[in-house]
Amino acid sequence: MAAIYNIVWGAFAIVSPLTLFRWCGFNPLPLYPELWQCIGMIVGVYGVGYGIAARDPFRHWPIVFVGLLGKIFGPIGFLGAVTSGRFPLAMGWTIVTNDLIWWLPFGLILLGAYRENRSQAA
After folding, report:
1. How many domains, the chain?
2. How many helices (H) does the chain have, and how many strands (E)?
3. Based on CB atoms within 10 Å of each CB, which residue in 8, 16, 17, 85 is the most buried?
């Protein structure tokens, strides 16, 4: 699911980079939509990685780990942007859908990979 979500979200950011900013009430709109398109490309590439990891998530746990790190650091950056007044709180729904909902499944995959690797080492 994370693979599909990230690929779709990334494609949307590339094809329509200012739409999200309009929905969230940015005024003025960002002057460099190409930066958002680049973020969309990165998100989409993560989706490809998640698709690879989905075939054998315990074996490909490093991909899941890197993804979880991004999903932890993203909300931290968001909080900094909101508290400084650079981002409206309305942008927070993207943190829920892009980051927070994936903490549990990614965490469970990492826990399972840890347990499997630990049992094989014993």
Report:
1. 1
2. 6, 0
3. 17
Look up residue 68 and give its amino acid.
L
* Whether the Cβ atoms of residue 54 and residue 47 lie closer than 8 Å to each other: no
Report the pLDDT value the prediction gives residue 16, as an integer from 0 to 100.
97
Q: Does residue 24 contact residue 91 with C-beta atoms inside 8 Å?
A: yes
Residue pLDDT, tens place only, 66-92: 999 999 999 999 999 999 998 899 999
- The C-alpha atoms of residue 74 and residue 105 are separated, in whole angstroms, by 17
Q: What are phi and psi of 104, to 5 degrees?
A: -65, -55
* Residue segments in the chain with a per-residue pLDDT below the cut of 70: none
101-121 and 61-83 helices, crossing angle to 10°: 150
Q: In sequence order, what DSSP letters do the residues of 48-102 get, joined into one string?
A: HHHHHHHHSTTTTHHHHHHHHHHHHHHHHHHHHHHHTTSS-GGGHHHHIIIIIHH
Structure tokens at 37: 């398109």
Cα dist. 31→96, 97, 108 in Å?
26, 25, 40
Query: What is the pLDDT at residue 120?
Result: 87
Q: What is the pTM of this model?
A: 0.89
